[in-house]
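Why run this: before we spend reagent on co-expression, it is cheaper to look at a predicted model of the complex and decide which construct boundaries make sense. The entries below are exactly what would go into the expression plan.
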Amino acid sequence: MNRALHFARETTLADRIRTWWVILRISLEERLVYRGDFALGTLMRFLPIITQIFLWGAIFQSAIGHDAGSAGAQNPSAVPQTATSQIALGGYRFDDMVAYYLMTMIARAFSSMPGLSSGIASQIRQGEIKRYLIQPVDFIGFLLLQRLAHKVAYYSVALLPFALVFFLCRNYFVDGWPEPGRLIAFVASLMIGFLIGFFLEATIGMIGFWFLEVSSLLFIYMLGSFFLSGHMFPLTLLPDWIEWLVQMLPLKYLAYFPAAVFLGKIPADELPQEMLIQAAWLGFFIILCRFTYAAGIRRYSGFGG
Amino acid sequence: MPIIEVKQLSKTYRVYKKREGLLESVRGLFHRQYRDVPAIRGIDLTVEQGEFVAFLGPNGAGKTTTLKVLSGVIHPSGGDVRVMGYVPWERSNEYRRRFALVMGQKNQLWWDLPAQESYRLHQQIYAIQASEFQRSLAELTDLLGVRDLLGQPVRELSLGERMKMELIAALLHSPDVLFLDEPTIGLDVIAQHRIQQFLRYYQEKRQITILLTSHYMKDIAALCRRVVIIASGQIKYDGSLSGIIDNFSSSKIVTLELAGGEQPTDLETIGQVLDTNWPKARLRVQRTDVPTRLSAALARYRLTDVAVEDPPLEEVIADLFAQVDDRASTAEGLS
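The model came back. Tokens follow.
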């Protein structure tokens, strides 16, 4: 009788959703313990934007050539708008570049998962993973909800500085707001980007089942992601054959793709197909993550926790 | 039907053999050598519903490994295990809702949040009905005297308070089987005593089945009628606590109280002198020799009092573990 009761309860979706909600709520509470810490962290994140504006100013300046005058070179931010707006690098004008950088910051705020991989690896190393073998709760689902809570907590604090920086930089968005269809595609690409980032980094963390330390592997991933996700510059700036290769990789969905969608750099007729490919990558990483976890648990329990 | 059935259980760990020196370490990256370490070698155990069983054994004897197999954390290398009819390492949710494992050194509560938040999560994970949850929580917090601490972040609690909170977390879903691995480790005497009292009361009232490992004889003496001694991965003894002395102690402690300030120097002829605190002397005598030695002592000295006792349980068990250790190291030396 007892057993039947347990089973019946487990199958109701409402109960499951309530469980997810409680995990989410508690994780959120836990995160808010540290809100002071990440309020400061968020502000620090915006410092590189100043360097970026100067850097791209200098690059466009030299692309224009000598006739822009030496005064501009000394103070790149003072480059006459008329001169720089003529030139485009990889399809991006100077203003687009700054706008692009700002947009990748939003994309990264969704897709980056600080501490996820190393956290999983340390849970494996210290045996805390046992808890998820003993309790009737799904480890990956639990982590995902926890991460969702991290993000919500982060945005609740980061919204204000984000809004301020975007307001100050509003003039770089020369084409204004995208039309509704593109805006929806942008939001969707951010959501999928979040999930790809989650399942990708969770998989890296689960390599900890085989190797005690994943930090060097994580470093390689971070480095690759830094350049190949388009975090630093639009991928269209790369030489053709490298760009072709990088466009095939899933890393671009973590930064480049959402930003390019927002700025209208993806042709409208290619957009649905690109979105489908992004969704397919998400499917791939979900399966990879589940598979790695199952294999890892098999090894863990075989070897002896 | 027994609630726990273990047949010929064995578990061998494969451990990476790290060799010394940098060159060897580099070589180890490509060609790893493993060593098989048997942790459990053929354990048979049957536990009936409502029993409170203690696992006793030196470090590395296989106690924790056995608990890990029973709670489904690890696969055994061989043998058959059923707990309430389930195969633990299949980890079915139905099984997982019916047992709990508490490890004294592991924390399952959220460190930065009050314990009640962790309990809410447990309520959901274990699908405990709201009314049942409130009732259990009130009962457990009252029994352990921690009602006022529910709202305090776990990190601010003392070790003893934290352990009580851990126990509550483990019992909220009213498990039928409870595994306790060193639940009183590192606690002061008062906290230990409180937890013992609680466990005894709760177990008697609910008639749940508990398997406990502990290094404190006091825990075991206070709680368990049945003791299983595990050493070198095998069961060496399975029976009552007092039976250990009958089985493993070959000697008795004889205390003589001498009259008239006598301090004889030939006490060694009666038995091994443990200590003297005149007019008293404590001697160890082989159990079979006690009658003859005692009558010899009575004939030789003027005595005001005589006492014959069993040696302390701790001592018997320590001797037993030492014997097992010696035998194990000799066996390994030969192989």
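The interface with chain A takes residues 11, 13-14, 39, 65, 68, 71-75, 89, 91, 93-94, 96-98, 100-101, 106, 108, 110, 112-113, 117-118, 120-121, 123-127 of chain B (CB under 8 Å). Chain B has two domains: 4-245, 250-309. Bring this page to Monday's planning discussion.
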